[in-house]
Amino acid sequence: MMFAVAIVLLTLVGLVARRVPYVREMELPAQIAISFAAGLLLTATLMFLWSLLGIEWTRLSLGIPLLILIALGWTKGATAKGTGWIGIAFFVLLTTYGALTARETCADLLYFWGPKGAHFHQAGKIDVDFLKFPHYYLMHPDYPPLLPEIYAWGTLAARKLSFWGALGLTPLFLLATVLAFRGIAARKIGEVMAGRFAILLAAVLAYGYAIGMVAGAADPPLVFFEVIALAALTFAEDREGWIVAALGIAGAMFLKVEGLTFAVVLLAAFVVTRRKILPAILAAAPGAILLGVWIAFAKHHEFLDSYRSNNKPFHPEQVGTVLRLTVREASYNFFYFPWVASLAPLPFGRNRKHALLPLLTGLGVIAYTIYFYLHAPDPAWWIASSAERVLLTALACFVVASAAASD
Amino acid sequence: MWRLASRGAPYFEQPRTIVDHVGNGKGNGKHETRDALILLPRVAKLLPRGANVTCFRPLRGQQRYDAANYLTAVGMLPHQNVLPPFVAGLETKRKDLVEYVVAIREPFTHPAYVPIAEWPEGRVYQVPR
After folding, report:
1. What is the C-alpha separation between B41 and A13, in angstroms, rounded?
2. Containing structural domain, residue B53
3. ipTM score assigned to the predicted complex
4. What value does the mean pLDDT take over residues A47-69?
């Protein structure tokens, strides 16, 4: 219990995001959701910085700077509550049931996210010896550290890693994703439409989480950060929107390898559709710097793996197998229902041009997912164990596209 | 809802482990790490800090590379050094054998090891030194 509570309380750290007027003017639940994202990213960055400086993670060494950030975030904001609460609550409760009755558990929590968190806490830092140990290679040594660091933070507070606590975060990530999307979208398409599409997003993601079994893994927070970035670039028009996009992009890049490719696809789609380069550079910069330092850290300590160029050979001869198996997994066990649901409102929208950015991003996500799978000589097991999870990003993109078209 | 329901009864009881309803891979049968999740918290209290240990489900009484249980043990025994299963192999010299073996469910019959604790989900073995 304490494990999950300590992680949720990082929202207080992220309240500093409300210093940005764009965030402060959103409806209150979105301010809280974006503060949660900011809290996770700021805390993970601080923990990484402490590791670089050789400062051990303790309640004191982390607590004092986090308390300063909490104090800086104390400011008043808008108080609107938003709409669509009953529908959103239904799908969040369904996910809560699924996660807390062990029906959505992702084995990756047991195999590497959890072990990394436990050992980072034990070492009081990013444990380089642990990551370099050749017999732990299957734990993906150079995967970005945000989630293990956050699990280490929860462990520091609770004195023990809690797998149940990690599962309990899954519905909270779903709720935060939907509330952040609704608040960002409401500024552009209105409170009522934003509420309706928030219910659709909750339904599609809750269904995908149940089928893909993502609880405890990095996929729910990854989709959370990605939706923030995509929604901000799609719906925001002023400069402050890019700051929120930068938060989402940095979080995604510091969380999973796919976060980098998502950022590249999103920003390329932005440049193509909006014909602006500077905002894309500004939105990419913090994440690029953070990930760059992480890659340099991994290279310096000789555990760079996934980010190496020519890491795995390309297998174009597998294209037929990859397409066939990916299309099969993409059905989500029910006639491609989430795809139909997320794209169904699109033809009825009045502003389909506005949907181009999220639409292109979603197609890009599908393309790079297939490209990744073409790097395995026998991709069947990999696709079966991951496609339903990694395609959640594309589903979320298509819901954002439908919402954007409704403007 | 039907997908969640298809992952089996009981529907309104707190499961014993976090994999009780996710089965092996796609939700059928018992998950390969379920016994380890029950066993390892007990084992953690038994083993000294810093001890070298490995964990696997034996095959015909011997070690095998069992990534699921081995990696689960890495996470659940953070105060010990969890090594890969081959360090308890028949070909390994006695001086190089890992001191403790957590054998999931099946008995481990390596002649150098003696059992020191037993539960329904598995046993702990030690090399007498």
Report:
1. 33
2. 32-126
3. 0.93
4. 97
